[in-house]
Design a protein that fits this description.
The chain has 281 residues and is an alpha/beta fold. The protein has two domains: 2-219, Ribonuclease Z/Hydroxyacylglutathione hydrolase-like (Metallo-beta-lactamase, Chain A); 220-280, no CATH class. It has helices at residues 41-54, 69-72, 88-108, 178-191, 209-233, 259-280; strands spanning 2-5, 10-14, 22-28, 31-35, 59-63, 84-87, 122-124, 128-133, 136-142, 151-155, 160-162, 195-197, 204-205. The strands form two sheets. The chain has a seven-stranded mixed sheet. It has a six-stranded mixed sheet with strand order 8-9-10-11-12-13, with no helix packed on it. Bound molecules: zinc ion. Zinc ion binds at residues 66, 68, 146, 165.
Length: 281
């Protein structure tokens, strides 16, 4: 695990053991606000101890961007009394699949034995919710696409946006909806943040933001085109494996996860949706 500072009050922690997933901390007058936690217990405990010292023992709350385990598990390392903010769909999804996926993770690696799931305690179903932490106001904004429950956290004054997984080096929509993701990426462009802390990988700075978002939008449109082509040709679903990532303008990314597999899963997800929609007509 390594960390960097984005401003005097904002820290980003990154796991070098799982897909460069990020956890963010904001030091406020009212205590530390933590957005997502890393999956491994030792990393999470290390971050909690570090922030406990920095924030002089005061935490304000926890925020969860979405229900995926690499963002959820480490929350157990923070004080029990803290509220967990999230979208209502996140709470429902965790209640539905959380314990089961944790049991599977434990089977694969006993290091997860000490994880206890934390469930959201304050949720919203409308487009937005504001969390007030003294001098800092955090706007929680529904940004579905990667998953239905994904939210972003916008610090309006600083114009810093934590996107959860709605922005990542390869947009991943196999567990979500690419049309929603396209809307979300446009929404992020309209918000005009000056800094983006994405769910995985490095911080995106002012001069890069528009280029990066445009590349992801183009990528998703290409994924849709590729899926339509396979469908139109009546080719076998498995031929999707032959479509390289580069065909959609992205390069393999050093996230430590298999880029091509993710890319194929994206096209297959779109293909399946389009095919189902065709059958309905
Ligand atoms: Zn995710």
């Amino acid at each position: 695990m390594y960390w960097e500072r984005v401003t005097e009050e904002i820290f980003v922690f990154t796991s070098d053991r799982y897909a460069l997933v990020n956890s963010v901390a904001v030091l406020t007058e009212e205590g530390v606000v933590v957005v997502d936690a890393l999956p491994f217990p030792d990393e999470a405990r290390q971050i909690a101890a570090f922030l406990d010292a920095r924030g002089r023992g005061r935490f304000h709350s926890l925020i969860l961007t979405h229900y995926h385990m690499d963002h959820v598990y480490g929350l157990f390392a923070f004080p029990d009394h803290l509220d967990v903010f999230a979208h209502e769909l996140c709470r429902q999804k965790l209640l539905e699949v959380g314990e089961l996926s944790l049991a599977e993770a434990r089977k694969a690696d006993p290091v997860f034995d000490e994880v206890r799931l934390r469930f959201p305690t304050i949720t919203f179903t409308t487009g937005e919710m504001v969390v007030d932490a003294g001098d800092t106001t955090l706007r929680l904004i529904h940004m579905p696409g990667h998953t239905a429950d994904n939210i972003g956290v916008f610090l309006e004054q600083e114009r810093i946006l934590f996107t959860g997984d709605s922005v990542m080096a390869i947009p991943i929509i196999a567990d979500g909806d690419w049309r929603q993701e396209l809307e979300t990426l446009q929404r992020i462009k309209d918000l005009a943040p000056e800094t983006i802390v994405q769910g995985h990988g490095e911080v995106i700075l002012r001069g890069e933001i528009k280029t990066v978002l445009d590349r992801y939008i183009k990528y998703l449109k290409c994924v849709e085109d590729q899926a339509r082509k396979v469908l139109k040709k009546g080719a076998a679903r498995d031929t999707i494996w032959e479509i390289p990532l580069e065909a959609c303008g992205l390069e393999r990314v050093p996230l430590g996860i298999a880029s091509h597999q993710l890319h194929v899963a994206n096209i297959m997800a779109v293909y399946d949706t389009l095919k189902a929609e065709q059958a309905e007509r």
